[in-house]
Amino acid sequence: MLLSHPENAGQSARQRLRGTDLRQLSRQGLWDMNPALVQLLGLCPLLAVSNTFATSLGLGLTTLAVLILSNLSLSLVRGLLDEETRLPVQILTIASFVTLADLSLQYWFFDLHQRIGLFVALIVTNCTLLGRAEAFATRQPVLRAMLDGVMMGLGFLLVLLLMGAIRELIGSGSLFAKLHLLTGLPDITLRVTDSGFLLLLLPPGAFLTLGCLIAAKNYIDNFFAHSPSENSPSEKQEATA
Fold first, then answer.
1. Model pTM greater than 0.90?
2. Which residue, of 19, 29, 78, 110, has the greatest Cβ tally within 10 A?
3. In a domain, 10, yes or no
C-alpha cells in the first residue's frame, strides 16, 4: 500500500481549495450574488447607459477594470488599515482608479466619453465597488480579492450588455450601432428593422427591461430549486416497495 507524502497531500488540498474558491466566487459574482440582479447595486449607470450595446460595453469594461484594480490594491494594504483609516483609504483608492479610467477614456475614446463620461465619474459612488472593498477586498488575500473583483465585475458587465442589446434591438431595430467608437473598427451596425419600440430607449424602458431580467432569474432559480432530485424520498420509497 502506497502512502502519499505529506507535502503532496498538502498541495492537493490547496489545489482543491483553490478549485472550490474559483467555483464559489464565480457562481456568486455571475449568478447567486450578481451585483445588478440580486444586490441591485450600481443601478444609476446601469439604467442610464444601457440604451445601446456600445455604451453598455464601454461602461461595463470601465467598471470591471476599476473593480479589479481597487480590490487588488486594497488587499495589498489591508494589513496597514485599521477601523479609522479603512473607509477613507477605500474611497481614495476607488476615486484614484476612476479618475485614471476617466482620463484614459477622454484620451483614447473621446467620442465614447462624450456619451458615458458623466456616469464614469459616478463609479466612485457605485455601491458595488464600495461594498466589495469593505466586505471582501480588505479582509482577503490578494488572489481571492482579485478573483472576486473579476467575477463581480463580469456579472455587472454581462447584465449591462444584455440590457443594452435588448433595448437597442427592440427600441431602435438595430444592434452594435456606434460600436466603432470603442473598437476603432469600421461600423458594423446590424439593421434588423427600420422602426422600433421607442419606449425601450426611454428611462421607463430601462426599468421594464431590468424588471424582466430579475423576474427571469428568479424563475430559473425557483425552477431548479423545486425540480425533483434523482434520489428524492418518494423515489426511494417506491424503489423499496
1. no
2. 29
3. no
Number of domains the chain is built from: 1
Q: Quote the domain boundaries for residue 81.
A: 27-224
Q: pLDDT truncated to tens, each residue of the chain (241 aa)?
A: 444 444 444 454 445 446 667 888 888 889 999 999 998 888 888 999 999 999 999 999 999 999 999 999 999 999 898 888 888 999 999 999 999 999 999 999 999 999 998 898 888 777 778 888 888 888 889 999 999 999 999 999 999 999 999 999 999 999 999 898 888 888 888 888 888 899 999 999 999 999 999 999 999 999 998 877 544 444 444 444 4
Residue 179 lies in a domain: yes
CB atoms within 10 A of CB 228: 8
Please state, in angstroms and rounded to a whole number, the distance separating the CA atoms of residues 56 and 171. 15
Structure-block grid coordinates of residue 61 = 469594461
> What is the number of residues in the chain?
241
